[in-house]
Amino acid sequence: PDLSEGTVNEHLDELAFLAETAGALTVKRYVQALPMPDNRTYLGSGKLQEVKTFLLMNEDITAVIFDDELSPSQLKNIENELKVKIIDRTGLILIIFAMRARTAHAKTQVELAQYQYMLPRLTRMWTHLERQRGGINMRGPGEKELETDRRIIRDIIAKLKKDLEKIDRQMATQRKNRGKLVRVALVGYTNVGKSTLMNALSKSEVFAENKLFATLDTTVRKVVVRNLPFLLTDTVGFIRKLPHHLVESFKSTLDEVREADLLLHVVDISHPGFEDQIKVVESTLREIDDRDKPVIMVFNKVDAFSHVEKEADDLTPVRRENITIEDLKRTWMNKATSVFISALKKDNFDEFRDLVYSEVMKIHVTRFPYND
Ligand code: GDP
User: Fold this and answer.
1) What tens digit of pLDDT does each residue of 230-246 get?
2) What is the pLDDT, as a whole number, of residue 192?
3) Which of 14, 197, 209, 359 is geometrically suited to a Cys-Cys bond with 343, CB 3.0 to 4.6 A?
4) Does residue 210's CB lie within 6 angstroms of at least one atom of ligand 1?
């Protein structure tokens, strides 16, 4: 993995952004280079003591967040050592998803992922469970209670899965009833501008916000570009290290992507790590769908793109030094069907619409061969 200082900083920026989205303010960062995370405590003992000392001097800090999924025992050991709440990357993403879930469908999917995450971590999740189940046991659990509780959770998981299967079937029927119209799905890393683009194309109001995961549910809109109708879907954004359970429980949401005829892969080129984000999206797509389908690369936020001139004595690695938007265009136009736009300012929007039109048309004529 790329462990340059720039990349590590970007990853921690993203983690801080996730924390902020969840309502937390981050005050300090720790980085440790280990060949392998420590089995017992993730961090080495020296680093852990360093964090502990900082916590002792700053009593108003209430949680430590890790940019990885911790094993249940690591989580417990670190918590015992640091005596504050420990949140791992998966837990943080689940908190945000739970905050964002609006519809019954999204709520069910998030709830399933939460319980699956909770099951092996039951000891520490007890208080949470207590609230959910209306106080099964007000004291700490003994082994027997824990076993009872695990069984309860397994039952809940089984029920949620069944509920989701039912929703899946309903949604599959709905999709079938939509007929033969070409289906286009917006995909991309979280916060790249998918909802903004959806609004710009369909002139409807979808919730767009500078927060991670503003969209959890798919929104499907019928869009008409120059008399050519097609269906446009906005869906949940992808992110580095997306919890596996989440991908699984969001299956019916991701079915929209799987069953799309054309993908618009939206990229935020004003983000210094956009190339890594492209890779994350492409590998997530491979995970949920192994069929190749046409993709338009939509490089968004050209208005916010600024290239950085590298200075000779600059110690901070800059990822995209001396690369202009023209360089990017040359590279990508050769590699893929690409377009550079600003969804916000509508820069280059006509070219974008033309490109979408011609790609949709290619598919449309195969479905409706006798239409003009
Ligand atoms: P999504 O998570 O991919 O759906 O992204 P959103 O559509 O919610 O947009 C995330 C943030 O990026 C919002 O604050 C948007 O206003 C902003 N945004 C979207 N498109 C552009 C653009 O072309 N230029 C700039 N500067 N900001 C944009």
Assistant:
1) 999 888 788 888 887 77
2) 95
3) 197
4) yes
The average confidence (pLDDT) of the chain is 84
Q: CATH code at 272?
A: 3.40.50.300
- C-beta 193 within 6 A of ligand 1: yes
pLDDT at residue 138 is higher than 50: no
Domain boundary among 31, 63, 87: 87
- Any domain includes 43: yes
Ligand 1 atom closest to Cα of residue 207: 8
Q: Each residue of 47-89: pLDDT tens digit? A: 999 999 999 999 999 999 999 999 999 999 999 999 999 999 9
Residue of the nearest CA to atom 12 in ligand 1? 193
What does pTM read for this prediction?
0.84
SS (H, E, C) 81-133: HHCCEEECHHHHHHHHHHHHCCCHHHHHHHHHHHHHHHHHHHHHHHHHHHHHC
Whole-Å CA distances, 218 to 101, 105, 205, 208, 255:
11, 10, 14, 13, 10
> Phi and psi for 44 in degrees, rounded to 5?
-70, 165
pLDDT 10s digits, 277-323 = 999 999 989 888 767 899 999 999 999 987 665 554 444 444 455 67
Both tokens assigned to 187: 């995909």
Distance from residue 195's CA to the centre of ligand 1 (Å): 7
342 lines ligand 1 (CB under 6 A): yes
Ligand 1 near 214 CB (within 6 A): yes
Residue 125 has pLDDT above 80, yes or no: no
What is the distance between the alpha carbons of residues 182 and 175, in angstroms, rounded to a whole number? 12
313 or 34, greater pLDDT:
34
Mutate which of 196, 218, 298 for ligand 1? The one with the most ligand atoms within 8 Å of its CB, which is 196
Asked, for residue 71, whether it belongs to a domain, the answer is yes
191 marked as part of a ligand binding site: yes
Q: Is 24 in the pocket of ligand 1 (CB under 6 A)?
A: no
Q: Is residue 95 part of a domain?
A: no
Same-domain status, 160 and 185:
no
Expressed as residue numbers, the domain containing 144 is 101-164
Out of 131, 164, 197, pick the residue that ends a domain.
Answer: 164
C-alpha–C-alpha distance, residues 106 and 127, integer Å: 24
Q: Are residues 338 and 197 in the same domain?
A: yes
Is pLDDT at 162 greater than 80 in this prediction? Answer: yes
Identify the pLDDT of residue 337: 95
